[in-house]
């Protein structure tokens, strides 16, 4: 690791750059007329494509839905017993209720285990007091 030259952006703060890296790759917003999208595309080029959580859920639902439709419509040529077909027809409703229960349970658990941030609360209260004092000095009354 070496310190960037004084002519590079961020050098006044002693920006540490990995060996062989230019400051433009680390601070593209500091360079006038920089194409930030090009820098991001260059950085993401070697990583491959990542799916968002929404895309993962949609692919999973599409896979489950197409499997369910193929089984219920007889597209695979399977002769399922009537008891299996009855369960299969109501399966989406069961899955929807199960997903709702899971969502409620997850929200309940997260609310129950939510941590109090006492240090952040004290810091915020002191900032509020500073802002009020500043506004009072400028003539605002509360």
UniProtKB/TrEMBL annotation:
Entry's Gene Ontology BP terms: GPI anchor biosynthetic process
Compartment(s) of residence = Endoplasmic reticulum membrane
Determine the domain of life of the protein's source: Eukaryota
Q: Where is this region: Disordered?
A: 1-21
Give the transmembrane ranges: 57-75, 87-105
Is Ion transport found in the keyword set?
no
- Membrane topology, from the record: Multi-pass membrane protein
Please name the Pfam families in this protein's record: DPM3
> How is this protein annotated for GO cellular component?
dolichol-phosphate-mannose synthase complex; endoplasmic reticulum membrane
Q: Does the keyword Transmembrane helix apply?
A: yes
Pathway(s) served: Protein modification; protein glycosylation
UniProtKB keywords? Endoplasmic reticulum, Membrane, Transmembrane, Transmembrane helix
What's the stated role of this polypeptide? Stabilizer subunit of the dolichol-phosphate mannose (DPM) synthase complex; tethers catalytic subunit to the ER.
As for family, the record states: Belongs to the DPM3 family.
* Assembly, per entry: Component of the dolichol-phosphate mannose (DPM) synthase complex.
Kindly provide the name given to this protein in its UniProt entry. Answer: Dolichol-phosphate mannosyltransferase subunit 3
């Amino acid at each position: 690791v070496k310190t960037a030259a004084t002519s590079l952006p961020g050098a006044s703060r002693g920006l540490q750059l990995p060996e062989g890296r230019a400051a433009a790759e680390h601070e593209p917003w500091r360079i006038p007329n920089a194409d930030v999208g090009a820098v991001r595309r260059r950085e993401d080029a070697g990583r491959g494509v990542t799916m968002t959580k929404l895309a993962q859920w949609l692919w999973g639902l599409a896979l489950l839905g197409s499997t369910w439709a193929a089984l219920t419509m007889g597209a695979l040529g399977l002769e399922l017993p009537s008891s299996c077909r009855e369960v299969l027809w109501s399966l989406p409703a069961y899955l929807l209720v199960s997903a709702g229960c899971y969502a409620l349970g997850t929200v309940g658990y997260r609310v129950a285990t939510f941590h109090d941030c006492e240090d952040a609360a004290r810091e915020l209260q002191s900032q509020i007091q500073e802002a009020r004092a500043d506004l009072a000095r400028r003539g605002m009354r509360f």
